[in-house]
Design goal:
Length: 134
């Protein structure tokens, strides 16, 4: 503390109107106060114990819920793995079928013949007759 500051005087026992410094406390009063204090401590302990037990019960509920969620997550993970395998299998099948379709379309185009000089849209005449007449 700096030198220029003087310490403030603390509360004086004479300042307090309900405390008589000359009064002596009897053993009965001390026993009564000790008993009251002990009762209050026991009450606080009981309340603390009750609140702690409630917290443990609530935590147990949370642990159960977390276990259920973990179990469900594991089940979902196995479903995802199965679905990924199925998607891969179907993707392979789609690729194979697309290649097969392209091959068949190419073969069909190769089997087509172009006839030059035959008019289109001859009405009811069959194409064989139109080709035979040319």
């Amino acid at each position: 503390m700096p030198k220029y500051q003087k310490p403030k005087p603390g509360p004086d026992a004479s300042d307090s109107p309900d405390v008589d410094p000359t009064a002596e406390i009897s053993c009965k009063e001390i026993d009564s106060l000790a008993s009251d204090l002990k009762t209050e401590i026991l009450n606080v302990h009981a309340e603390f114990t009750r609140v702690t037990e409630e917290m443990w019960k609530e935590n147990a509920t949370f642990y159960t819920r977390i276990d259920d969620l973990e179990e469900e997550a594991n089940g979902q993970a196995s479903r995802v793995v199965a679905l990924e395998a199925k998607v891969n299998r179907l993707s392979t099948q789609v690729t194979r079928l697309t290649d097969k379709t392209e091959d068949l379309e190419s073969r069909q185009r190769r089997d087509n013949c172009r006839l030059i000089g035959v008019e289109e849209g001859l009405g009811n005449i069959r194409p064989e007759r139109a080709v035979a007449e040319c």
